[in-house]
Amino acid sequence: MVLATDKTAINNESYTAEQYLELEVSAETRSEYWNGEIVPMSGGTPTHNKISSNMNGLLWLGLKGKPYDLFIADQRLAIPDRNIYAYPDIMILPRPIELQAGRKDTVINPILIAEVLSDSTEAYDRNKKFSAYRTISTFQEYVLIDQYQPHVEHYVKQGSHQWLFTEYDGLDQQIMLTSISVEISLVDLYENVVFE
């Protein structure tokens, strides 16, 4: 899923996190919450969904027998230091999963997050979201997947305020996800994706 392209809050009103969560439980469509703003999310493209599905399948296979849980698109993440609630495309959490106090539907301890980039969300995912994710103490790895060409950006936490950036271009590349010891091949990640 991606944010609606206008990125405007519903009715341009300010909401508390509690109001947002109450509305979100009964909403027919998902929205993210950014420190007072409720921002509707629109559906993704078939290519976006295909890449997300491929990544999900590869991670599911790679995580078999390991102490992690894999979540896609519909799992809400709380980022308390920024007063944000988001729905990453893909999240991996170590077991046991930690939930936000008083909630049964909101996680707080991802170690790896992956986002499939689109024209409307690329800058948002690369900057504002990554900055917010970095405030999560358990967060160790960020993967940005281009849906228009075989290109992946990979960030691995090295220490406090230090991240190692590696770029992968072309279907012959392999990415080692160090936090979970899983290797992903770009040819598998982009299987059945037709680039224009």
Total number of β-strand segments?
A: 14
Order of helices and strands: EHEEHEEEEEEHEEEEEH
Low-confidence stretches: 1-10
Report how far apart the termini are.
Answer: 21 Å
Helical segment count: 4
The largest sheet, given as strand count, sense and whether it forms a barrel, is:
6 strands, mixed
Beta-strand residue fraction: 25-35%
- The chain-level mean pLDDT equals 92
Order the strands across the largest sheet as they lie in space. Answer: 1-3-2-6-5-8
Characterize the structure shown.
The protein is α+β, with helices and mostly antiparallel strands and 196 residues long. It is built from 4 helices and 14 strands. It has helices spanning 17-26, 46-63, 122-133, 186-189, and strands at residues 2-3, 31-34, 37-42, 68-72, 76-79, 84-86, 90-94, 106-107, 112-117, 141-146, 151-159, 162-169, 174-177, 182-185. The strands form 3 sheets. It has a 6-stranded mixed beta sheet, covered by helices on one side. It has a 6-stranded mixed beta sheet with strand order 4-7-9-10-11-12, with helices on both faces. A two-stranded antiparallel sheet has the order 13-14. The chain is globular, with a radius of gyration of 16 Å. The two termini are 21 Å apart. The model is unreliable at 1-10 (pLDDT under 50).
Please name the defining characteristics of this protein.
196 residues; alpha+beta; six-stranded mixed sheet; 4 helices; 14 strands; 35% strand
